[in-house]
Amino acid sequence: MLVLLPPSETKSDGGDGPALDLAALSFPELTPVRDQVATALVALADDVPASLAALDLSERQVDEVERNAALFAAPTRPALERYTGVLYDAMAIPSFTKAQRRRADARLAVASALFGVLRAADPIPAYRLSGASVLPALGPLRPLWRPSLEKTLSTVDDLLIDLRSGAYANLATIPAAITIRVVTESPDGRRKTVSHFNKAYKGRLAAALATTPREPTTIRGLISVAATAGLTLTKTPTPNALDLVVTP
């Protein structure tokens, strides 16, 4: 099983790992595109106003540009510890036992505008680049990433659960993946997509799937793992699509 998480705009600082080595990351076939994007991002950081505009940042966020400038020299830490925010907080990663962390490292991956896709343990520095960003030297990221990223993700033989958000799902289509929609259900059975608590519930589901001793291999298994964690996953009329039904 591979659970594909969205990244987060916010990243933790520092780290005690060596400088970024693109060739050492998982899915090495993505290295050429990673190198293109990383090189363009670092070069862009030489022009602070242009960086702020391209990354949709305010002048108060110039430190994000400084992070990009130091991309190849800054210390690294595992991707699962680098990304922060609501979804990652909901996963409660620091509470994982050693056995649970080993399972999480094997089962979790993170979509990334800079790296395409990462395994949870891949060491990366802090950076700023979103899926919707347009780098002046390269243009929109989707045409750049889509061919290689779709090829890579299409070769994943395991059960693939896609929790990506819109901008990152747009970088590559994964027809065989199982998608999860967070919804509420009214008394008459009508369902409505949840936006406010979406990330928190996806984080709870990801944690349950990442740490369960028995790895699910079917949709029925996914539903069972979710139920054990107090979450309600249900099938929908759309193939390979499940609803995570929550109480408003």
Automatic annotation (TrEMBL):
<dbReference type="GO" id="GO:0005829">
    <property type="term" value="C:cytosol"/>
</dbReference>
<dbReference type="InterPro" id="IPR005583">
    <property type="entry name" value="YaaA"/>
</dbReference>
<dbReference type="Pfam" id="PF03883">
    <property type="entry name" value="H2O2_YaaD"/>
</dbReference>
<dbReference type="GO" id="GO:0033194">
    <property type="term" value="P:response to hydroperoxide"/>
</dbReference>
<protein>
    <recommendedName>
        <fullName>Peroxide stress protein YaaA</fullName>
    </recommendedName>
</protein>
